[in-house]
Structures are given as C-alpha cells and as structure tokens.
Amino acid sequence: MLRTARTRSRANARESTPFMTPTNQSSRPKSVVSVMPRMFSDKIPSGPRRTFVFPGPGLPPDNLRVHQDRRCFYDLTREELRALVVRRNLSPVHAERIWGYVYLEGVDRFADMPEVPARASSRLESELDLALPSVVHETHSSDGFTRKYLLRLLDAHRIETVLMRFTGRVTACVSTQAGCALACVFCATGQMGFGRNLAPGEIVAQALHINRVLRPQSKTQNTKPKTAGAVAPARLRNVVLMGMGEPLHNYDAVMKAADILRDPHGPAISARRITLSTVGVVPGIIRLADERRPIHLAVSLHAATQEERAALVPVAKKWPLDALLNACRYYIEKQQRRIFFEWTLISGRNDTPAQAHAVGRLLQDLRAQVNLIPLNPTAGYDGVPSDRTAARRFQDILAEHGLPSTVRQRRGIDIAAGCGQLATATR
Fold first, then answer.
1. For residues 109 and 42, which has the higher predicted lDDT (pLDDT)?
2. 419 is catalytic
3. pTM score of the predicted model
4. Which one of 48, 104, 190, 294 is most buried, counting C-beta atoms within 10 A?
C-alpha cells in the first residue's frame, strides 16, 4: 500500500550519503568564465497552463514552442506541485498523495489514485499530463544485461535510453538532449547533429520508464521466500547522465531533473549514485562547483595535449586543455571530491606507453581517477578499440604515477548501446 511505499522511501533516504560542504573557500580561476547564463527558469510559469519544449541552447524564452495544453507532471518538483495544488484552493495533502502514487507506486493515471478526491483529481488531470514517452523500439543485447529503448517525445523527436545490469545494481543511462552539437569525432550522437534540449520532465521520465520495466520483476521477486541465496528485488539505483547530448549545455533542466530524482519522497536516487559526464564545458564545471552540486562529475579527456585533444573533441578549441584543467582544480578544491576522467582507448592513437605517461604527468597532482573505455564502433569513425593487453599496460603506467584507474565494463555493444553509440534520426 501507499503507506508502506512511503516508509520504504524514508529508509532509502537515510541510506544516502549527506553532501558535506567544504570549509575551504577557494578562489575562482581567472582563466575561465565562471557564470553561465540561466537559459530557463526553474519556476512554474504563470499564465496559461502549457507544456514547453526547449528548442536549443541560448534561445530566449519567447522562442519556446507549445505542443499541448497540459503541463508535464514530471517537470515539477514536489514543492512546485504543492504550490500548484494550493493555488487551486486544494489541500496540500493531495499533492503529497499524488506524488507518492506517481513516484512510489508507478501510477500514471489520476483515475488510479483512490485516496485523492474526485474533485481534486479531475481538476488536476485537466492541467497535468502523466504520460511517459512512448516506446518506439526495444532492443535486447546478447550479453543478457543490457536493453536499449528508442523513445518518442511529444513533438516527435526521438531519444535513446539504456538499462544496464551489473552485479548488485541496475543503472539507467539517460539522455539530456536530442542529438548533440559538440561533434566529438568518435561519438555517434555528435555525428548525428543537434535537435534540441530536453525539458526536466523528459529527463526524469527516462528513469521512470526504467523503473516501470523493473517493477513487474520486483513484484515477482518480492513474493519469493527470503533465503540466504535469494536475489534482491530489482530497483533502479544508479543514473548516469551519459546518454545523448552534453548535460552542461542544458544545465538548468539537467540540474532540476537531478533534484527531482534525488527527492527522498520520490525516486530517492542518492546523489552519490548520479554521475554527470561532460566533454569539458568549462563554465558549467565552475557553476557545478559554485553551486556545490553533490552529484559525481566525469570529464571526457581522451588526449593529453591541446592539439591531440582538439582533433578528437572540437570543443577543446573553445575551452583549451589548460582552461579545462584549471576548472577541474577549482572544482576539486571547492567540492573536496575527486573527478573521474574518461579516456577512450583508440588503438595506435592514444593507447601507447608514451600517451599513458603523458596523462599520468598531466593528472598526477589532481584528486582524480581515470576511467578507460575501449572505443565502441560507430559508422562515422574508422578507429579501432585497444585490446586487453594495451589497456592493462596503460593501467600499469597510470599506477606508476599514483593514478587509480578502471576499465569500463562493456555493455550492449552489439545493439549500439555502448558509450558513444547512441544516435537516432533527429525526428
């Protein structure tokens, strides 16, 4: 019942690690821009009740397009939902009940909320849309651990979301944009070009879709006797913002979505289980540090010199390697936490001992961990992934420089669900 689900949510919240505010107040690096413009407001817009679609970074609010007459429920924080309910002269208790039904019970129709009075549910149903993106196609990997979902948004844009199973956890890889404008040469999303930013609710809805997939299995597992060897119920525990798009080019929507996912009365995903990956948008890294965002940060590095990095990651021409490292130092000092540096291993290009020593020297004074990712194949890039021997040699050299590293487990490569492989037609 609903009361039991809320009790579970409070227990999950107690398990999460509190975010510690560092006492060290470091100065902002002078070589980088420290403030990004707030492109979109987190507040509920006044006036007619509408769902907005963000057409792209940098466009003013009057260019937002309206595609239906109801607001997306998943765009709202719990506090915003409560404020909306109160403004409609309804009891705030109804907001808490609706929130619990949606995020704890997986209900997606007001008609299926018996504890909400008919007057309140009818009024709110005319204003709020509980529909999740529709599934156009579902693909299962032969590895048995990975599923990829092609989702259709309300304006016909399409995105991809990936469910990955690992020992003891389930992870959702979610998209933050339809396409990407940064054009990393080995990334299928960059090769397809940019469609638009996703709204906060479109990001949250991807995690909810994964939870919906897992829910039937959880119910089945919960009916089994609890023995020493029993399998724990499937539950979404990790979210990686590593799908289609550059999260820091859609900063406000992504941060709002992360806040909703972290809500202890809702999805209750611990901040330490949410990781954002950026190709190196320097102002966004500075803003993450200034706002003391508790989620993990991963930075795509891929090369140890400015020239080599700009050839793989064109955005390095705008934010050079020195500026990126200065921003990372500022983030580490301000947050008092490490950064994960991602390094795509391309055979014969950046997997040599000389390259390993170069990255070791580059990062040895930082609180960092290197995540090595053998290149995944894409149609627009003819590079070849490094073999296990080269990856192990690279790791050994990093260890000589005192840098911890891991080699990412490959998941869903045969269905193009791996890192850098997500892509769709923009519509």
1. 109
2. yes
3. 0.82
4. 190
